[in-house]
Design goal:
Layout: E1 11-16, H1 18-23, H2 27-36, E2 38-42, E3 48-53, H3 56-59, E4 65-70, H4 72-77, H5 79-93, H6 101-115, H7 120-127, E5 131-133, H8 144-148, H9 157-166, E6 169-171, E7 176-178
Parallel strand pairs: 1-4, 4-5
Antiparallel strand pairs: 2-3, 5-6, 6-7
Helix pairs in contact: 6-7
């Protein structure tokens, strides 16, 4: 309502699909980079080889934290971009600048993960991850039949739990397609 009118979001969620990425030539990826305040760097062949952090003084707006869910096919076809994005978001999570929601949210997530039993190093690593998807080699969320059979469930909590369980695999620079024991970071 009026309370948030004109306010920029502080966090966004994106889903990346391989067919859409090819059909729309990276439009959604460009939105992710824009939200985070990242600039792609291309080589002579037109391939993205790095993601540079746009300095806050040049960006002139707050960064918007993002969480990215990737499909299994996207993970398999665009691993290079995912690795660049994982590295860039982890660098942003440590960047000390005013209004950096990525760093702020990473600190809060690390505290939460510590309270849930993760050691300090693991909590910091997983708190900085922003890309999640299926376990390597796994595809889909397994909800198609369950959603269609809406007479078999009283509430949607089990559907949400299955979705979160299937997509809890973190894709960060040090933890590629891994989870933490007993804690769903996603």
């Amino acid at each position: 309502g009026k309370k948030h009118a004109g306010a920029a979001p502080t966090k966004l969620a994106f889903s990346l699909w391989s067919v859409e990425a090819m059909r729309h030539m990276g439009v959604t990826e460009a939105q992710v980079l824009h939200a985070l305040g990242l600039r792609p760097r291309w080589d002579e062949g037109g391939r993205v080889v790095a993601l540079d952090i746009i300095p806050a003084r040049e960006l002139k707006r707050p960064r918007i934290d993002t969480v990215v869910q990737v499909t299994g096919a996207y993970r398999d076809q665009f691993e290079g971009f995912m690795r660049l994005l994982a590295d860039a978001t982890e660098r942003l999570s440590k960047l000390d600048e005013p209004g950096n929601t990525i760093a702020h949210n990473t600190r809060l997530a690390a505290q939460s993960l510590r309270k849930q039993g993760l050691d300090a190093a693991s909590a910091q690593r997983f708190a900085a991850v922003r890309i999640f998807g299926n376990q390597p080699g796994d595809y889909g969320v397994g909800l198609s039949d369950a959603v269609l059979d809406s007479t078999a469930w009283e509430n949607d909590a089990p559907l949400a739990e299955q979705y979160l369980s299937r997509l809890q695999y973190a894709y960060g620079t040090k933890d590629w397609g891994t989870t933490t024991a007993g804690v769903n970071v996603y």
